[in-house]
Amino acid sequence: MPENITNSKEIKKAFIEYDRKAILNNVIVGCLLGAVLMPVGTLLDYFVYHKEVSYFLKLRLLCSLLIIFFGGSGGGIHANWVFFWRYVPPFLFHG
Predict the structure, then answer these.
(1) Do residues 69 and 78 make contact, with C-beta atoms less than 8 angstroms apart?
(2) CA 80 to CA 74: how far, in whole Å?
(3) What is the C-alpha separation between 38 and 63, in angstroms, rounded?
(4) Which of 14, 31, 58, 78 is at 20 to 30 A from 50, Cα to Cα?
(5) Is the pTM for the entire model greater than 0.90?
């Protein structure tokens, strides 16, 4: 009996490759938006935390740099460290 075309290994492999590229593009766009819009939040900090604006601007710029560093490769080599550090805070701050 011939193999059903919907269960073809080539179709599954092509879909996985397409899905991977779509996810990668979404990650890159999200990182670009995050890196650009993070410093823009300083405007809100100015009205809410007027005295600490420079401190929050430094934190926001640091966050933008980290977004570019970890997300700039599209989740490549640096993504492993992101997933590693996701699980560290619960161990550091448990009571």
Answers:
(1) yes
(2) 12
(3) 7
(4) 31
(5) no
Burial of 71 (0-12, 13-18, 19+ CB in 10 A): buried
d(CA 25, CA 38): 20
- Return the minimum-mean-pLDDT range out of 4-8, 15-19, 41-45, 52-56: 4-8
Helices (H) and strands (E) in the chain, counts: 5, 0
Directed axis angle between helix 53-71 and helix 9-40, to 10°?
Answer: 160
74 contacts 28 by C-beta, under 8 angstroms: yes
Q: How far is CA 18 from CA 12, 21, 25, in A?
A: 10, 5, 11
**At 78, phi and psi to the nearest 5?**
-75, -15
